[in-house]
Amino acid sequence: MVDKDRVKKLLDKVYRLNYWFCNEMLIEEQHITEFEDACKKATESGEPVIMISAAEGNAKCMKSCMKDTVEVINFLRNKENLEYLEPWQLAGAEAMFNQCSEDNVIPFDLPAALMAVLGMWNELEDSFKK
Fold first, then answer.
1. pLDDT at position 46, please?
2. Is residue 5 pLDDT above 80, yes or no?
3. Three-state SS sequence of the chain
4. Distance CA 97, CA 10 (A)
5. How far is CA 44 from CA 30, 31, 52, 53, 125, in A?
6. How far apart are CA 26 and CA 59, in angstroms?
7. What is the pTM of this model?
């Protein structure tokens, strides 16, 4: 059995991670709108123009990260799962957040890595099928 206070602190970090992914997705969706507007104006001008945007792919990536992060949140909130969590698993998840903080980066595969260290094998497999 793991310390519930430790799980709460980890949950707080995962909630903040989910907010970050949500915010980034909304920014990318705004970029999609701006890109579509720019394409429309370019088409109306009659000038040949080449425009490329990765915003749609980025938004999909953020949405996938959000879904995976919600899976981690739901897993940690389920009291039955806490019975099977080991302290080393929480230490691994905490270490991931600490390293991300130290490096000042949030990798897009962090939710999948959290799923792996927490032993969320079915959820992780489902995530890769999407």
1. 80
2. yes
3. CCCHHHHHHHHHHHHHHHHHHHHHHHHHHHHHHHHHHHHHHHHHHCCCCCCCCCHHHHHHHHHHHHHHHHHHHHHHHCHHHHCCCCHHHHHHHHHHHHHHHHHCCCCCCHHHHHHHHCCCHHHHHHHHHC
4. 9
5. 21, 20, 17, 19, 46
6. 8
7. 0.81
